[in-house]
Inverse folding.
């Protein structure tokens, strides 16, 4: 690949800044395609080693060889951001990718969800993840690869089970239940309680230990790290490291339609306004743009597939055309995909794009069912609920240390994959080291218990 594209980076950055984009500096680097695939699979340039990433790597290779995917770039938000471009890219592709990356950089710096998660984790996630990888290597030397792999098996099996509504760095639960007398708000009752304490005749009441957990706990990574009866400190560190990285990845997952659409809108706009780009490169870049934002995400035209680039790009174009760029920026700053799709995927746009409620098959193809707009919203958003994982909470730790987990099938609206769930429980048992009981429902809706 020629390095000519690097001469356009600064000029595109200047054009983006003049156009109103506000972004942290981005380090651009061209890398071999094999490394691009590794980055995409691991999620970061350097990350803790685990066999599951190898499985994902093989899947990516198969998809690429079958023509179903090609990686032009992988970008990591932060300050600075990091963008890796495939060495096989041509000049036009890298010009487009540079503009696209700056759209991502503007989004991640200004979107509230991104900002909140990055402030809690780190705005230098690449270096942060490299520290985690080094800690894992040290743990392998100290405790052996089998024990470390068992801890990673359990932690990565639960990597989606976090609660982003809680702070990354949480305090443990109170050890004792709160005194009911201390909770009264009535002024007379407070004075009466004070008189009781002043009398000194009544014997002191024994403090009651608070139940663990005091409420259903969805942040399983945090809960296990803090309350597993015999977890060693190095195992706890692995769980908390995986949890930190999950907090980093969550906004990428929860804003994919918005984020890819925003970056696609801006790469198209910047290309149109960049009069310094050679004509042949501009034409080729526009062709590349058409491939990125085409309605069908895969080669097959048999049935509808949702391409987040296409859907997000179309929604931002319509929103900016209707309400203006300032209004669109406010939406970009405040929303995630849930609010964005529900508020701005209108019936008119859905009809224009030919979108309908659909049913996904196991092979990824999607069958149209009916043109109901609220149902369309929910069908698009269904895979995003709870970070894409079933809603499972720690509900009780028995006196013998048995952990009770509960699957909220009613809210979830999804059943559990029993084979996968059994494997996850087996992984978790190796670090919890006490019995585990998961309550869910079977296909008939009757209660079902999985025991390890």
């Amino acid at each position: 690949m020629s390095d000519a594209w690097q001469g356009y980076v600064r000029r595109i950055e200047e054009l983006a800044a003049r156009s109103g984009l506000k972004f942290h500096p981005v380090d651009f680097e061209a890398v071999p395609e094999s490394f691009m695939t590794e980055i995409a699979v691991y999620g970061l340039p350097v990350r803790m080693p685990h066999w599951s990433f190898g499985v994902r790597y093989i899947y990516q290779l198969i998809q690429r060889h079958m023509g179903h995917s090609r990686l032009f770039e992988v970008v990591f938000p932060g300050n600075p951001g990091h963008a890796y471009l495939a060495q096989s890219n041509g000049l036009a592709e890298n010009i487009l990718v540079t503009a696209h990356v700056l759209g991502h950089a503007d989004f991640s710096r200004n979107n509230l969800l991104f900002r909140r998660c990055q402030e809690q984790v780190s705005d230098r996630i690449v270096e942060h993840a490299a520290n985690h990888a080094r800690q894992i290597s040290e743990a392998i030397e100290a405790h052996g690869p089998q024990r470390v792999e068992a801890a990673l098996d359990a932690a990565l099996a639960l990597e989606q089970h976090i609660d982003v509504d809680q702070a990354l760095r949480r305090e443990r639960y109170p050890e004792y239940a709160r005194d009911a007398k201390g909770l009264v708000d009535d002024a007379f009752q407070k004075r009466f309680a004070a008189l009781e304490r002043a009398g000194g005749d009544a014997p002191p009441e024994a403090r009651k230990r608070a139940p663990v957990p005091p409420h259903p706990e969805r942040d399983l990574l945090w809960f296990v790290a803090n309350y597993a009866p015999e977890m060693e400190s190095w195992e706890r560190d692995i769980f908390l490291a995986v949890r930190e990285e999950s907090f980093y990845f969550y906004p990428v997952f929860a804003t994919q339609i918005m984020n890819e659409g925003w970056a696609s809108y801006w790469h198209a706009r910047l290309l149109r306004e960049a009069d310094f780009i050679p004509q042949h490169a501009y034409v080729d870049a526009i062709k590349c743009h058409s491939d990125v934002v085409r309605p069908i995400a895969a080669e097959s035209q048999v049935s509808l597939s949702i391409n987040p680039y296409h859907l997000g790009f179309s929604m931002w174009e319509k929103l900016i055309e209707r309400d203006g760029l300032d209004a669109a920026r406010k939406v970009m700053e405040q929303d995630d995909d849930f609010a964005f799709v529900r508020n701005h995927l209108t019936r008119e746009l859905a009809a224009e794009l030919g979108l309908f409620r659909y049913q996904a098959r196991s092979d990824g193809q999607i069958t149209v069912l009916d043109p109901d707009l609220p149902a369309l919203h929910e069908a698009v958003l269904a895979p995003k609920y709870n970070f894409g994982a079933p809603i499972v909470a720690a509900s009780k730790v028995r006196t013998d240390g048995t952990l009770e987990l509960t699957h909220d099938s009613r809210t979830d609206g999804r059943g559990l994959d029993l084979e996968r769930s059994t494997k996850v429980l087996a992984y978790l048992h190796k670090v919890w080291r006490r019995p585990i009981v998961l309550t869910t429902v079977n296909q008939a809706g009757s209660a079902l218990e999985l025991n390890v």
Observations:
- The CA atoms of residues 193 and 322 lie 61 Å apart.
